[in-house]
TrEMBL record:
Residue ranges of every copy of the FAD-dependent urate hydroxylase HpyO/Asp monooxygenase CreE-like FAD/NAD(P)-binding domain listed in the record: 5-187
SUPFAM superfamilies, per database record: FAD/NAD(P)-binding domain
Protein name as catalogued: FAD-dependent urate hydroxylase HpyO/Asp monooxygenase CreE-like FAD/NAD(P)-binding domain-containing protein
InterPro entries assigned: FAD/NAD-bd_sf, HpyO/CreE_NAD-binding, L-asp_N-monooxygenase_NS-form
Transmembrane segments: none
Top-level taxonomy: Bacteria, Bacillati, Actinomycetota, Actinomycetes, Kitasatosporales
Length: 630
């Protein structure tokens, strides 16, 4: 009897179990029996982030048709494809997809009945889908594989590398003996970092409120009083969730205006928000249309055959030119095929010249200027990245007007089929993300480039362009701005601690000489996992015992960078400091807190998602090893 323990029963653990079910008939002999234990303190399937027990105001930032947990014909893997429905397809007729079990929550059941494929579902609806995916994976396990679910927390993992791995459960006191253990822990909390010490101490001294980075669904917002002036750092998805909970979540409501847009009707319990960030604008809204031409054939310039120098490389210098060219290719592929009337050259002629010219070359810029007459139809990545660069205004009212115009223009562009080329660029970003994960292990970045460019700029740019909220969220922000409950602070936000007044003083170079004072500060960012400060009891124990370590990169000049991520090898095996940094034969780690840097556990259909590829490879490796253990 072989035993596998998977710690974490959210989307990552569920996805791994689905791949075990798919591969076991081939890789486990008929006489081999396998027990799989799936452990999570939260409900299995959705796990913590996608659990049903959260506000119905919190939504996904993907349309229902763009969410799947299943491999398809475009997934590049060795295991068998087991097609399955997207969230939209499942919701359209749950009874048609066994094993059928009615959704218990009547509100979620009602949402699923009315869910359109282009709707942005609540996270509770996604919880229902993930619960069904898990039940289907369990039903598809062969007879020689048994599953045991434990709603519990793992407090300790012990055992010698060449012997059984002992998994100690906190609540039940059970100790499971396993041949292989997988940490599929998902998104984790860390204790507040040193960068939060000053605002925490300041708030305590002056009786103010400071909210450090947190998963918004779990944040305590009760300290933000009605009418209180609150400074908010960050305009991404955590900000959008924060706004929803502090407005509709406090009894306010939105109603449509006759000519379009929304009006907000306050409850009187809302604080007044003053929000800014480095870019100064919220993430781009998700597009509300589909490609008008055929999908761009990707990759073209950024694949595993990309020529790179030996040794450590730098992201912006060595990778970005090919990545930017790939984005441009997908953008113009859609423009030329979906809107040929707005181009001045045949596609084949344009592509032949585009192939020859480097991204940063004047020849490429001249080609685009000739082939695309309207400047608004040309891709400008620099302007996209910093839309408010060099902005200077003379008054707060002028700044608000500028930001409102920006949001309206973004909404119009993301809902207008004329601009479907933006969706082509989006597909390229998804492709780049997946190929980057496979390329980096063989071509490591310098410490400086990993910190500033990979984990810093690239992650931020990808999220800004490709992971924005649905369009109606920007309409809500505009309505709140009109109602005087949301004020934009501008780009390059600076927050100072005003000891004399006991306030958080916020300013932006876009409005010289102007400051806003708030009695509360919210850092509206998702917390970055840091192994040295992790709140997870298992990771704390493993680190204390010297059996797990965080990624530490060092440049030749001595510059270092600690990413906070768990060190794993390309096969996702944990690199064990007690084994001189070699992989531990019995321990694997997947997902967000690891150096694979592949956090997304579900994906768009037919995008060859890196998490699906990794799940399949890990499942096949584990089954092959467990076959020998039996």
């Amino acid at each position: 009897m072989a035993v596998l323990v998977v710690i974490g029963a959210g989307p990552r653990g569920t996805g791994l179990l689905e791949r075990i079910a798919a591969n076991a008939p081939e890789l486990l002999g008929p006489g081999v029996e396998l027990d799989v234990h799936l452990i999570d303190p939260h409900p299995p399937g959705g796990g913590r982030i996608w659990r049903n027990a959260q506000s119905p105001l919190l939504r996904m930032n993907s349309m229902a048709e763009d969410v799947t947990m299943f491999t398809d014909e475009r997934t590049t893997m060795d295991g068998p494809v087991r097609p399955g429905p997207s969230l939209a397809e499942w919701a359209a007729d749950p009874a048609a997809h066994p094993p059928y079990l009615p959704v218990e929550d009547p509100a979620v059941a009602g949402e699923l009945r009315d869910l359109a494929s282009t709707d942005f579902p609540t996270r509770r609806a996604q919880s229902g889908y993930l619960d069904w995916v898990l039940r289907r994976a369990i039903a598809e396990l062969p007879e020689n594989v048994r599953l045991f679910l434990h709603q519990d927390t793992v407090r300790e993992l012990t055992g010698e590398p060449d012997g059984p791995q002992l998994v100690h459960l906190a609540d039940s006191g059970t100790v499971l003996s396993a041949d292989r253990v997988v940490l599929a822990l998902g998104h984790l909390d860390s204790a507040p970092g040193p960068d939060t010490a000053e605002p925490r101490d300041f708030a305590e001294r002056h009786g103010r409120t400071y909210q450090p980075p947190a998963f918004t669904a779990d944040a305590d917002l009760s300290g933000l009083a009605p009418g209180e002036h609150v400074v908010v750092r960050g305009l991404g998805l955590a900000f959008v969730d924060l706004v929803a909970l502090l407005t509709e979540g406090r009894g306010g409501r939105f109603t449509p205006l006759p000519g379009g847009g929304l009006r907000y009707h306050p409850s009187g319990r809302e604080p007044v928000l003053y929000a800014g960030s480095r870019r100064g604008v919220p993430y781009h809204a998700k597009t509300g249309y589909r490609l008008q031409g055929p999908p761009p054939p990707l990759p073209r310039y950024f694949g595993l055959d990309l020529e790179l120098p030996d040794g450590h490389i730098e992201f912006k210098r060595d990778l970005w030119p090919a990545m930017a060219k790939e984005i441009g290719f997908a953008y113009y592929h859609e423009l030329f095929h979906g809107h040929p009337e707005r181009t001045a050259l045949p596609w084949d002629a344009f592509l032949a010249d585009y192939d020859r010219h480097p991204w940063h070359s004047p020849e490429r810029a001249e080609l685009v200027a000739t082939a695309v007459p309207d400047p608004e139809d040309r891709l400008d990545l620099e302007r996209l990245d910093r839309p408010l660069a060099d902005l200077r205004v003379g008054s707060p009212a002028e700044l608000q007007q500028h930001l409102r115009s920006h949001l309206r223009a973004d909404l119009a562009r993301r809902s207008d089929l004329r601009h479907s080329a933006d969706l082509g660029a989006f597909y390229a970003l998804l492709s780049l993300y997946g190929h980057l994960i496979h390329l980096l292990p063989a071509h490591p970045l310098t410490a400086r480039s990993t910190a500033a460019e990979l984990d810093g700029w690239w992650t931020g740019f990808f999220s800004f362009y490709a992971s924005g909220p649905p369009g109606f969220r920007l309409e809500q922000l505009l309505a709140l701005s009109d109602a005087g409950l949301l004020h934009f602070l501008g780009p390059d936000l600076r927050v100072d601690l005003d000891e004399e007044r006991g306030t958080f003083r916020a300013s932006s170079p876009a409005l010289p000489g102007h400051h806003v004072h708030g009695t509360a500060l919210v850092d509206a960012f998702l917390p970055r996992h840091d192994l040295s400060r992790t709140n997870d009891p298992l990771l704390r124990q493993l680190r204390r015992d010297g059996r797990i370590d965080e990624e530490l990169l060092t440049d030749p000049d001595g510059h270092t960078y600690r990413s906070g991520l768990i060190r794993t090898d390309p096969d996702a095996r944990i690199l064990d400091p007690a084994l001189d940094g070699h992989p531990h034969p019995g321990r694997t780690a997947l997902g967000a807190p690891t150096t694979t840097r592949a956090p997304a556990a579900f994906a768009r259909p037919r995008t060859d998602a890196p998490s699906f590829r990794q799940n399949d490879a890990v499942a096949r490796r584990l089954l092959t090893e467990l076959q020998k253990e039996d």
